[in-house]
Each structure stands twice: as structure tokens, then as C-alpha cells.
Amino acid sequence: MAEQAGSDADDACAWAERLGWAFGLVAEDPAARGAALVHLAEAQRQVADALARSNEMWLLTRHLGRDEQYREPAFLQARRRHEQAQRRSLPDGVWGGPVAGDLATWPGLPYVLLFLEWEAKYPLEWTQYAKAWGTKQILIRRVARARQKEVIRAKLTELVEIVVNRAYRCKDREYVRVARAVDSADLRGRLDRAADSDSPWARCHAGYVLWLLDRPDLPNTRHVWRTWVAGEATALM
């Protein structure tokens, strides 16, 4: 989307104005999370209303033919309002990213990390209000490729630890990419503790990640994961 691509060049103030409220989604205070969820629900309602208006204008102007239709001011305005509403909501607001340049310095990166942190820490609320498995997968792959500044490494290390200690959720296996990108003594120590915990989920997940960290050439495929899980299940019998 043209409007969304333009957001790549926005500065940190513009991002904060649009999505600063979303940090409440990962607050420890339930009241703060509740307020952020109310804000999100309203933002999503505005997206739905703007989309309905955009679709209505598309139907009203399609008789003009495609070229003229996409120059029609009323239709262009409706599309622009929908795009602007998307940028103030989730998960739509974290779509896109810099076409070129350093992701680590992109002002939108804190909101990408926020979206992943929300899913990791409060998965039920994330699922209810903003379930988007494809977006989760794309964002994990994107941050795994980013240049790892220390603050980014710390956040990603925390996310890997949270994810391996819970029951498996869709696309969690993608975090192997992140673990490989931020591999360190700190991360391995956290994984070792999870692998020695009383939780069978943690033992399985953390063990798998540690195993792949020691085998950087082994692909993180579904077959490899299922083989590992089958071996773990057999060991538990």
C-alpha cells in the first residue's frame, strides 16, 4: 500500500503518536492492559468502518473503468482513510517495514517487538484481539535478520526464553531463527534452565533449540521438529 510504504520514513514521534498507546498491552497492571485493549477495539472498529466505506466507493466508481476509478478523488480519499486507520491499529500498524536500510534503526522496530512480546506474554489476549499467525511468522523472521543492537538482543533473548517455557503455539518454531541470531552464553544458560525444569513443554522446546544451536547447518524444518518431538515423547514413556 502506498500509504503504508510511506510510513517507513516516519520518525519515532509519528510512530508514538499512532501506536504509543499499544505499550499498555504488555503492562503488568491489568487495568493498564484493559485500557489498551479498549483503545485497540476502537481502533479496529475504525479500520472496519473505513474499509466498508472504501469498498462502497469502489462499487460506486467501478463503472468509470480502472484507470479513471483510481483517479477519482472520492475513492482515493476513502482508500487513504482506510490506510490511515490501519496504521493506528494492530496488527495492521506493524505491517510493512523499510524497503531498504537498517531495520535496527527503523522507528517501527519497537512496535514490531511489542507485538511479539504481547503474543509471548499474554497469548490469550493476543489471540482474542489480534490473532495473525502469518504476521507473527513474518515479524519473527524479520527481527532474526536485523542487525542485533544490544537492546534488541536483550529483548529477543527474553522472547525466546518465554516461548520455550510455554505450551507450543502456532509459529513458535520460528523462534529458532531468533535463537541462532542472538546465540550467547546468557541465552544458553536460560535454555539450560528450561531444559532442566519440571515442565515437559519447556524440556522439549528448550532441548530442541539447544540441539539446533549446536548444529547450525541443520535446517529447522517441520520434519526435524517432529522427529525431535517423537524422540522426546519416546524418552518420556
Describe the fold and architecture:
The chain has 13 helices and no strands. It is mainly alpha-helical and 237 residues long. It is elongated. The chain starts with a helix and ends with a helix. Helices cover 67% and strands 0% of the residues. The chain has helices at 2-6, 12-19, 30-61, 66-69, 73-86, 109-121, 123-130, 133-145, 150-164, 175-181, 185-195, 200-213, 222-236. It has a domain at 1-108.
Q: Ranges with pLDDT <50 over ≥5 residues?
A: 1-6
> From the helix content, strand content and strand pairing, which structural class follows?
mainly alpha
Cα(first) to Cα(last) distance is 52 Å
Overall average residue pLDDT: 91
Count every helix, treating DSSP H or I runs of 4 or more residues as helices: 13
Counting copies of identical and different chains, the oligomeric state is single chain
Number of strands: 0
The helix fraction, in percent, is: 55-70%
Q: In percent terms, what proportion of residues is strand?
A: under 5%
| N-to-C series of helices and strands | HHHHHHHHHHHHH
Rg, Å, rounded: 21 Å
Sheet bearing the most strands, described? none
Given the C-alpha coordinates, what overall shape results?
elongated
Question: Keyphrases for this structure?
Answer:
mainly alpha, 237 residues
